[in-house]
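Progress narrative, Year 2. Work on Acetoin utilization protein AcuC from Paractinoplanes atraurantiacus advanced from sequence curation to structure prediction during this period.
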Amino acid sequence: MSGVRGSMTGMVDRTTAVVWDRALLDYDMGDHPLNPVRVELTMALARELGVLDRPGVRMITPVPATEAELTRVHRADYLDAVRAAPIDPFFSGWGLNTPDNPVFDGMHEASARICGASIAAAEAVWHGETTRAVNISGGLHHALAARASGFCVYNDPAVAIAKLLDLGAQRVAYVDVDVHHGDGVQAAFYNDPRVLTISLHETPLTLFPGTGFADETGGPGAEGTAVNVPLPPGTGDGGWLRAFHAIVPSILRAWSPEIIFSQCGADAHRLDPLADLRLSVDGQRAAYVAMRELADELCDGRWVAMGGGGYALVEVVPRAWAHLLAVATGEPLDPYTRTPAPWRKLAAERCPRSEVPESMTDGTEPPVERWQPGTTPDAVDRAILASRTEVFPLHGLDPHDPRD
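Result:
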């Protein structure tokens, strides 16, 4: 990685690539929770707020990932199935043509383009062309080597990380804050000591995909490279951020990553219809700021951020990810910024049954709560201690010492 570090030497100002093309909206499963309008409204909101016109922001138009890039993660016969499924009304198997993963015209091409967008983001950062990069359409973290799962056909974070490994990366950190466990990315690299996966999510006892327990810590030769923080239903800003800060910074500092990937699913929000955590947009914004600060501290700012889940299509996702784009491109937005009138009009036209928010805040101030073992023995703290107990010793850290 010395070459990349050298290419960043002397860079004071952080620059950001935003990967975007309206063709990314073609990943469209029809009457389905994963409606691409959430991505359309995010980009429209960021544009109206001036985020995409900031100094140092560069727009990148992606191309679809190639067969060779996709087969670093997915089996070739699975790619054949994805191509064949839309032309066969009776197609079955591979996790396709199900309520979660309905087939649609151009499915292979649309899925490959999202993977290509995440590859473009990763390469731009790795080659020192930009400090940070964002692919809001990405984050499809459930797809497995030969199976569609959880609304995900191809696993763009895993494909992009595999690309970096091929380019010589030795220490890639992946931090997943979606409400669902990042199972597909963990599975892709469970036995690879070059990739650290960290996932904070609602407990698999109550939520899909049923994986992500604290004792999933990595395969032989890669012990400690999978970190899971399963949190109880009802966890809000205070508990969630306490868990994040009790685990993520310590592990990342011990790991010393060359680059940080973040999957920033917005479905941990209290209004999300598919899960039961209770975060606010303000709490999500605080998490994005924390991840950017860790990238600045540990790897010269190299940070690749992706979208992910999020099914409150107007009320939550556009605001959360506009905050993400603002954090990645420079100064975080004032939470009390009003949503622009042209955007509110567009949102009302696109989703007439939704309540269009007038402000970028939920009106909450995320509390700062430092984890102290044994002082607040609630369910969140038990989850924190369970995760620390499983993985901290594998990194030479003391699970009971709050300084670690």
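Residues 1-12 have pLDDT under 50 and may be disordered. DSSP finds twelve helices and eight strands in the chain.
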